[in-house]
Design brief:
The structure is a single chain. It is built from 10 helices and 12 strands. By secondary structure, the protein is α+β, with helices and mostly antiparallel strands. The protein folds into 2 domains: 148 residues, Ribosomal Protein S5, domain 2 (2-Layer Sandwich); 122 residues, GHMP kinase, C-terminal domain (Alpha-Beta Plaits), CATH 3.30.70. Strands 1, 2, 3, 4, 5, 6, 8 and 12 form an 8-stranded mixed beta sheet that branches. The chain has a 4-stranded antiparallel beta sheet with strand order 9-10-7-11. Helix 1 links the parallel strand 3 and strand 4.
Length: 283
C-alpha cells in the first residue's frame, strides 16, 4: 500500500493564550502538492519494521502505527517513508508522514478513517486535519476541522536552511503576543471569489512576532533579504507558515507562481511553485 501525505500551508493563524498547556488556534489551512510517500506492507509476524528511521522513538509515524496496531490487533507491517516535503519549514512534514501512515493502514486492514481520528488527535495537532486535507478552518488545538469547498490556489514557497522550535515559538508568544489578526470568513470569501490581491492582504500569521523573536540571526537575515527583494520587485510580501521557517505567497495563477519562483531562484533563494490539493492523503 502506497500513500502520499501532502504538506500544508497556514493561510491564517490566530492564536489565543495558553490554557492547560495548549494554545487555542483559529485559522485557515490548505494542503499543497508537495508530498512524502509512505509505503506499507504486511508482515507474517506481529513486528513493526520502520525502514531507515532517522528519528528513532520520536518518529510520529511510528507512534501512530503502534497505536493503530494496538487498537485494531493487526498483524505486523513494514513502513518506508520517502521525503520530499522540506524539513524545518513549518509545512507539517512529520504530520504528513503520520496521516499517510494512518490512511494506508486503514486501507490495508479495512478500517474506516473516522475510526483513527482519536489516534491522530493524540499524537499531533494537525494530523486529523491532514487526513482530510483540502481547504479548511481549523480550531481548538488545530484538530477541530471544518472543511470548506475546494478552490484551486497557487503559491510560491521559499525555504531556508535553519528551522525553529515550535515549543519555543509558542512559549515566546505568551510574552510578545501577536502583531495581526485575520478575519477568516473574509479571507475565505476572497479566496472563493478569486480576489487574490485582497486575500494577499488578509493572510497573516499570529506567531510571526514570536518566531522572529526566537529566530537566530542568520535566519532573520535571510528573512530580511527576502523582504528586501520583495520591496524592490513585488507589491505583495511573503508570510511565514506555522512556526516556520518557510515563507509563502499566494499568486493569481500557476503561470505567475512558476515565473516568480524562477525569478527568486535566479536571485539565490530556494523557491518553488506549488498548488492546493483537495485531499490531504492520496492512495
Amino acid at each position: 500500500m502506497i500513500a502520499k501525505g501532502y504538506a500544508k500551508l497556514n493561510l491564517s493563524l490566530n492564536v489565543g493564550p495558553s490554557s492547560g498547556g495548549f494554545h487555542s488556534v483559529d485559522g485557515v489551512s490548505v494542503t499543497v502538492d508537495v508530498f512524502n510517500t509512505v509505503k506499507i506492507e504486511k508482515r507474517l509476524d506481529d513486528k513493526i519494521e520502520f525502514v531507515d528511521n532517522p528519528y528513532g522513538e520520536d518518529n510520529v509515524a511510528l507512534k501512530v502505527a503502534r497505536a493503530f496496531q494496538q487498537k485494531f490487533s493487526t498483524s505486523g507491517f513494514s513502513i518506508e517513508v520517502q521525503k520530499q516535503i522540506p524539513t524545518k519549514a513549518g509545512m507539517a512534514g512529520s504530520s504528513a508522514d503520520a496521516s499517510a501512515t494512518l490512511v494506508a493502514l486503514c486501507s490495508l486492514f479495512d478500517v474506516h478513517t473516522k475510526d483513527v481520528l482519536d489516534i491522530a488527535r493524540q499524537y499531533g495537532s494537525d494530523i486529523a486535519y491532514l487526513i482530510k486535507g483540502g481547504l479548511a478552518k481549523v480550531y481548538g488545538k488545530g484538530d477541530d476541522v471544518e472543511q470548506v469547498e475546494f478552490c484551486p490556489l497557487n503559491f510560491v514557497v521559499v525555504t531556508f536552511e535553519q528551522g525553529l522550535s515550535t515549543k519555543e515559538v509558542f512559549q515566546t508568544f505568551d510574552k510578545v503576543g501577536s502583531h495581526c489578526y485575520c478575519d477568516n470568513d473574509k479571507l475565505l470569501s476572497a479566496l472563493m471569489s478569486g480576489q487574490i490581491h485582497l486575500a494577499q492582504k488578509l493572510i497573516c500569521n499570529g506567531l510571526y512576532l514570536s518566531a522572529k523573536t526566537v529566530a537566530p540571526k542568520a535566519l532573520k537575515d535571510d528573512w530580511q533579504s527576502l523582504d528586501d527583494w520583495c520591496a524592490k520587485n513585488l507589491v505583495a510580501s511573503f508570510t511565514l507558515t506555522g512556526t516556520g521557517s518557510a515563507k509563502f505567497l499566494l499568486t493569481k495563477d500557476e503561470t505567475e507562481a512558476k515565473e516568480l519562483a524562477h525569478q527568486l531562484q535566479k536571485a539565490g533563494f530556494s523557491a518553488f511553485a506549488t498548488k492546493s490539493t483537495p485531499v490531504g492523503v492520496a492512495t
